[in-house]
């Protein structure tokens, strides 16, 4: 795959099958046949960094729950959708999603360092990489170049930090040089899930741009901020990258006021401003993670007075049909 070093996508130490997980003590042997069936449908990847965070003695470990497949994924509930955020109808050219007038997404690849069991793009992301070919990337960049109303280019995927620093730097540099692009944003799980990929070369590539760059770090539990993750985040910050936090409200991971408080405090300690707390998108086989909106609002209400305003993200939900995000409150008058 162009632009991804083999070590970036095929690390020998990343666990990629039910058998790998069982051998590492992350899956009971009895669960292997069902998880093999899950793996035939949805990609599996658990990095050494993530495997090292799992408390194997805790059957309800919030780290394991995010990444270790479960037989329940084989069941698709009637309300679940293959493309819950409806990227497809808003795709003018391959790899681009244009939903709002002033910003657009670029998805240069569909590979991730880990595969989250609740992912809203789980039908699209996977180990085969989904990297845009040279001609496809040129067409996507040409689309940005002829869209003067688009001021913000948002790299997502997949995980753009899986690209080699040279490839990523080149894409961001091309966007940054467009006169109408005022800022760049990258969405990534790499700093917490594969912090070793945040090399000095990667930080340098992100820091060398003419435009401001914001990195939205996806993390859902305080324990994801390991010493290695803190180091990776510090490297990015010193290079001039502004860090924001995005999380998903997940049953069994962060569905208590204590867990959310811990998560947002951990973000602030890492110099990350919590930005969005997402309501789970109804992707297939993710029902075990769903928390009702009213419960989400109650959790945020419970945080009032417990944490400073700096720790507050906006609680949002993607509207069906790709109509965009709507804030879910709680409203001030409800407090
Ligand atoms: S890193 Fe992001 S895109 Fe990749 S599987 Fe997790 S949630 Fe999905």
TrEMBL record:
Binding residues for [4Fe-4S] cluster: 112, 116, 119
Keywords: 4Fe-4S, Iron, Iron-sulfur, Isomerase, Metal-binding, Pyridoxal phosphate, S-adenosyl-L-methionine
An example molecular function term from Gene Ontology annotations: isomerase activity
Domain of life according to the entry: Bacteria
InterPro entries: Aldolase_TIM (IPR013785), Lys_aminomutase-rel (IPR022447), Lys_aminomutase/Glu_NH3_mut (IPR003739), rSAM (IPR007197), rSAM_sf (IPR058240)
Cofactor: [4Fe-4S] cluster; pyridoxal 5'-phosphate
Residues of the Radical SAM core domain: 98-310
Gene3D superfamilies noted in UniProt: Aldolase class I
Sites of N6-(pyridoxal phosphate)lysine modification: 325
Entry coiled-coil feature ranges: none
UniProt entry tagged with the keyword Transferase: no
UniProt keyword ATP-binding present: no
Protein family (similarity comment): Belongs to the radical SAM superfamily. KamA family.
Record-given protein name: L-lysine 2,3-aminomutase
């Amino acid at each position: 795959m162009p632009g991804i070093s083999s070590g970036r996508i095929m690390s020998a130490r990343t666990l990629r099958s039910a058998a790998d997980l069982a051998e590492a003590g992350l899956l009971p042997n009895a669960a292997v046949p069902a998880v093999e069936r899950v793996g035939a449908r949805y990609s599996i990847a658990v990095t050494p960094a993530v495997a090292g965070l799992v408390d194997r003695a805790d059957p309800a470990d919030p780290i394991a729950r995010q990444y270790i497949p479960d037989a329940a994924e084989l069941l698709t509930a009637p309300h679940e959708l293959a493309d819950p955020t409806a990227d497809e109808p808003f795709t003018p050219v391959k790899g681009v999603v244009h939903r709002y007038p002033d910003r657009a997404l670029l998805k240069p690849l569909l590979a991730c360092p880990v595969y989250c069991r609740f992912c809203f793009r789980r039908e699209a992301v996977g180990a085969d990489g989904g990297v845009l070919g040279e001609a496809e990337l040129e067409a996507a960049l040409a689309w940005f170049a002829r869209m003067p109303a688009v001021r913000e280019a948002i790299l997502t995927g997949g995980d753009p930090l899986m690209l080699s620093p040279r490839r990523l730097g080149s894409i961001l540099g091309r966007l940054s040089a467009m006169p109408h692009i005022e800022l760049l944003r990258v969405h990534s799980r790499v700093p917490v899930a594969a912090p070793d990929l945040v090399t000095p070369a990667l930080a340098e590539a992100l820091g060398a741009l003419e435009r401001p760059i914001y990195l939205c770090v996806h993390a859902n539990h305080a324990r994801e901020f390991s010493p290695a993750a803190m180091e990776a985040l510090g490297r990015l910050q010193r290079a001039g990258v502004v860090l924001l936090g995005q999380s998903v409200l997940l049953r069994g991971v962060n569905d208590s006021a204590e867990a959310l408080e811990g998560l947002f405090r951990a973000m602030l300690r890492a110099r990350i401003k919590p930005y969005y707390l997402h309501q789970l998108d109804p992707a297939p086989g993710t029902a075990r993670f769903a928390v009702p909106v009213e419960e989400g609002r109650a959790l945020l209400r419970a945080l009032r007075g417990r944490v400073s305003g700096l720790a507050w993200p906006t609680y949002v939900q993607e509207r069906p049909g790709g109509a965009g995000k709507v804030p879910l409150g709680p409203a001030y008058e409800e407090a």
